[in-house]
Amino acid sequence: MIHLFQPQTGDEELAAVAEVFADKWLGHGPRTTAFEAEFAAHVGVDPEHMIFLNSGTAGLFLALECLDLREGDEVVMPSLSFLAAANAVLAAGARPVFCDADPRTLNPAAAHVEAALSERTRAVVVLHYGGCPGDIEAIAELCRERGVPLVEDAACSVGSRVRGRAAGSFGDLAMWSFDAMKVLVTGDGGMLYVRDRARADRARRLAYHGLVQSSGFGHARVSGRWWELDVPEIGRRVVGNDLTAAIGRVQLRRLPDLVARRREIVELYDRELAGVEDVLTPPPPPAGHESTHYFYWVQFEGGIRDEIAGELLAADIYTTFRYAPLHKVSAYRREGGPDLPGSDRAAERTLCLPLHPGLSDDDVRTVCAALRKAVAAHR
């Protein structure tokens, strides 16, 4: 089976984990702090504003919680997004309001976001589809003008930049995901960036039960009663640990090579599928944009997408569509919901092909040959 995703881990990651075992400090500790600092340097922000968590989803929930949303508040987000973002909005007590996206890039433009804003809008959450930052500069400017916090769902964009500036650094809060299917993997894990220092300090407390002083051991030499608790508000335990941080530090060092191989695979897909009738390949990133290349998607005319996916699966090639439009999911759907033609069109004709550095050039050619054969049969 040629898989859609596959983690790229090996001897370096095993050695880093062995060092953690040898030190006998497996939980939240010095390697976690080091990973936060190294990732902050990668993004170009202060490490005091970066928090390593047990998942990217935890980052979204924590980000929305830090905005102090209330019942009746609205959060604008693209319908073509992962369900964790909508769940985080609902858990914070607000209501997701879905905006449309460009049917080719699958990213929202600033105009799409603006059309969904209202006097009840209290935040905007924007996904970078497939690692492509999209219209993030204009969306960030729009949010600043309206005084609305922007949360960047940079789960797929760990190596993406716009004119040298890292995806995730444009908004007020941002999260990255490091689960087993992502570009940088720690098994499970995620990073949260919070621009405002007071809000960042609060997020760090909420990530560990709401404790002002999270470690009694670390506080023992500066307090005579280090076991006493100070909990100004209730939090939960969603912090990362030194085992996963050790893997993440190795993966961060390897990131340029991992992204470079993804770029080579994308370029090979582009060459192999150029000129294939009834198949559209992804539009290239705009000038000044660097993509992490998390997804490679193709689009089909004539309503043949589902049949093509089935025939590829029969040939041991796994494909899928990400992300299903949330405005049609029962948990979020409402009467008189939005008309989102771009999202609907993308959802009916888009298919994500296998993309990970473990693919050989022959694997890519096998996928393309099977795709061309299936399309020709339906032409």
Automatic annotation (TrEMBL):
The GO terms this record gives for MF are: transaminase activity
Pfam families in alphabetical order: DegT_DnrJ_EryC1
Keyword Transferase present in the record's keywords: the answer is yes
The keyword Transferase appears for this protein = yes
Organism's domain of life? Bacteria
Sorted alphabetically, which keywords does the UniProt record give? Aminotransferase, Pyridoxal phosphate, Transferase
Cofactor(s) this protein cannot do without: pyridoxal 5'-phosphate
**Family, as annotated:** Belongs to the DegT/DnrJ/EryC1 family. L-glutamine:2-deoxy-scyllo-inosose/scyllo-inosose aminotransferase subfamily.
Name under which the protein is recorded = DegT/DnrJ/EryC1/StrS family aminotransferase
